[in-house]
Amino acid sequence: xxxxxxxxGLGSEGLAVTGEPLVVIDRVRxxxxxxxxxxxxxxxxxxxxVCCIIGPSGSGKTTLLRCINRLEKIDxxxxxxxxxxxxxxxxGTKLREMRPQELADQRRDIGMVxxxxxxFAHKTVLANIIEAPVIVKKTPRKTAVADARAxxxxxxxxxxxxxxxxxxxxxQQQRVAIARSLAMNPKLMLFxxxxxxxxxxxxxxxxxxxxxxxxxxxxxxxxxxxxxFARDAADRVIFMDDGDIVETGSPAEVxxxxxxxxxxxxxxxxx
Amino acid sequence: xxxxxxxxDAGEPMRQLxxxxxxxxxxxxxWVGTVIAxxxxxxxxHMLITNPNLQWSVIGHYLFSHAILSGIALTLELTVxxxxxxxxxxxxxxxxxxxxxVLLQRISWAWIWFFRGVPPLVQLIFWYNLASLVSSVSVxxxxxxxxxxxxxxxxxxxxxxxxxxxxxxESAYAAEMIRAGIQAVNRGQVEAAHxxxxxxxxxxxxxxxxxxLRIVIPPIGNDxxxxxxxxxxxxxxxxxxxxxxxxxxxxxxYQTIPLLLVATLWYLVLTTILTIVEHAIETRxxxxxxxxxxxxxxxxxxxxxxxxxxxxxxxxxxx
Lengths: 271, 319
Fold this sequence. Notes:
The complex is a heterodimer of chains A (271) and B (319).
Chain A: H1 2-11, E1 23-32, E2 35-45, E3 50-54, H2 61-68, E4 76-81, E5 84-85, E6 88-91, E7 94-97, H3 100-107, E8 110-113, H4 125-135, H5 141-154, H6 170-182, E9 188-192, H7 200-215, E10 219-223, H8 227-233, E11 236-241, E12 244-249, H9 251-256, H10 261-270
Helix pairs in contact in A: 4-5, 4-6, 5-6, 6-7
Chain B: H1 7-10, H2 28-50, H3 56-63, H4 66-97, H5 102-117, H6 120-128, E1 136-140, E2 146-151, H7 152-155, H8 158-184, H9 187-195, H10 200-215, H11 217-230, H12 242-253, H13 256-287, H14 309-312
Antiparallel strand pairs in B: 1-2
Helix pairs in contact in B: 3-13, 4-5, 4-8, 4-11, 4-12, 5-8, 6-8, 8-10, 8-11, 9-10, 11-13, 12-13
């Protein structure tokens, strides 16, 4: 099924066909120095869906996420976002890698939140948020600043606009990072273990922002160890182990009543 | 050892010792050394003050003379210009060195190899004599018609030769420093920029370079002090910098030592000022530019700091 929509995506370059899933992961393979980390992964994410990927470290979930906005290149299969192959241009039957500008244009629509926040260390919170809209989208500065302030209010940090990242707690930094991604109005948001680097008491504030975002209908793919978040906010949970999808289904199915022994033993260890 | 300190060994009842009662350990050798150093120092000073060959009155006479002061102006001008040109070229060369383009990498490698390998004094003389190698410089189609042409001799004045030699040497060193600075910027900064739709060039210009340049400010300060001294090489081109101005005077008056001392004093004053400025900048960088409370959970920090402490505590992302 994934393969079918994958082929359909090939011809319709740049066209998001209505009814098609927003993200198609089709037989994706990837190795690091001959060590396979993704062994032919396929799944789809519809618009508005919240998909949580769980699994032990080294299972390939972070790599998969990084492949979706081409921070990593894949060796086989294809990834489509909004009907367009990621990082690849299709000319008839020929595929070529995107030029830097083409890739940058595609990445505008895919927001990403990192485990280590990665706020621009030399810029204030406000400057972090308006950077991409002003530089990439050429949004007028005034508009960008107004938008940024609205986003900061949304993540509960209206008073931190002029602070530098390192003056903020980890939880605050991560909320700024989410606001920074949202400033580009992405169609899809990727979260790479967004709370793993946080002190336990700061996890809640970040998850609350993510839940709000999910309720507003943002399409989200979240790599996480927070089973509580997966249970409450996810429409679907994917359990990965050793470069493969072991089990997928609703949170109730995968977390509440796992069918696979590997899923069961993982869940027993984390909770 | 700890267990050996019993009531009997220490001769003191336990739980009555207090670290605040510790007295300074006497350091007799340090005292002897100090006395000897003072002795030699005073002999040297005595020689300086009483030796008539030093001619302190001559030094006083020329210290603020017009020729010397204009020499200082030229020395400072050369230092600033050579550093600015050198840094500008260095940034370009560093970025080329780290680009994905193999041709640019090689050109950058060759540039650094050449300009770090040839002594600046040789370069100064070489540039000055460029006319005997290339008689004119022109803009046009290669092997075809030319549009504009200049005589090399009119382009290469002693000043431009000096500036070329000094700044090109500096560019090679600056390139290596800036390359290290760029590599020291956390990889996550570029990934974040990419994920926001910035191209590699935008990320380099807006995100990486500003942080890399802050990292290399201390070594650049150091290079500036070196450059101030290297400018004395231009005296071989008869360019009236601080040293050559002093030389010009003693060539007439034969007061060699006093005038060399005039130059020495001024070089010391200038390098001292630059050192103080450098220290001030470094302290300011370390303190965090006074941008409000910086003491976070990450420890006493600065927003200029290279890798914020929290990144050290982040577990490595799973592949």
